[in-house]
Design goal:
Layout: H1 4-11, H2 25-48, E1 54-58, E2 64-73, E3 76-85, E4 109-110, E5 114-115, H3 121-127, H4 134-155
Antiparallel strand pairs: 1-2, 2-3, 4-5
C-alpha cells in the first residue's frame, strides 16, 4: 500500500501530540512548537538527502503560512509561491495548500489554486488526527501532488521555465 521511500520519509517526521487549534490559546502555542519542531526535522532530513524542495514561514499567530516550493526538471528549477491558512477546526481539518500561479491550469486543483487532496490524503489525515501536522501535509500532500502534476504541466507547455521566452 505504501512504498518503502514513503515509509522512510514518514518515519523521519516526528508525530505531534497536542490536539489544539488556533482558538485554544495556550494549547495552540504548544501545538505550534510541535509543528515547528516537526517541520525543522523534515527539512533537515530532506537537506541531508539532497531533497530540499520548499521553504515555509508563518505569521506570528501561526494561522497563515506562506513560502516557496520548487520542482527541478531537466536541470531547471521551477519555483512557485505556496500559501495556506490554518482552519479554526485544525488539526481535524487538513490545511488547504494553494499554489496561486497554477490556478486553473490543472483539473486537480480548486478555485484559488488550492491543490486537490481529497481522494488520497484527506482520509489518511483523518485517521491520524492529531498526530499529523504541517510537515506531514507537505510530505504526503503537496510533495506527491507536485511530483505528478508539475512534470505534466511542463510537458504540455502550461508551465514554462523563467528563461524561456514567450512565443509571439
Amino acid at each position: 500500500m505504501v512504498d518503502d521511500a514513503t515509509k522512510q520519509t514518514l518515519g523521519a517526521i516526528p508525530l505531534l501530540k497536542t490536539n489544539a487549534g488556533p482558538r485554544d490559546k495556550e494549547n495552540w502555542v504548544n501545538r505550534l512548537k510541535e509543528e515547528y519542531q516537526s517541520l525543522i526535522s523534515y527539512v533537515k532530513n530532506n537537506k541531508s538527502q539532497d531533497n530540499d524542495w520548499f521553504r515555509l514561514e508563518s505569521n506570528k499567530d501561526g494561522t497563515r503560512w506562506f513560502g516557496k516550493c520548487w520542482h527541478i526538471q531537466d536541470l531547471k528549477r521551477y519555483e512557485f509561491d505556496i500559501e495556506f491558512d490554518i482552519a479554526i477546526t485544525y488539526p481535524s481539518t487538513v490545511p488547504e495548500i494553494a499554489i496561486p500561479q497554477l490556478d486553473g491550469k490543472t483539473a486537480k486543483m480548486y478555485r484559488g489554486g488550492k491543490i486537490c487532496l481529497s481522494d488520497h490524503f484527506k482520509p489518511l489525515w483523518g485517521r491520524n488526527v492529531p498526530r499529523f501536522g504541517i510537515a506531514h501535509a507537505m510530505a504526503l500532500g503537496l510533495g506527491p501532488w507536485m511530483a505528478v502534476e508539475i512534470p505534466d504541466l511542463i510537458e504540455r507547455g502550461v508551465v514554462r521555465h523563467s528563461d524561456q521566452t514567450n512565443p509571439s
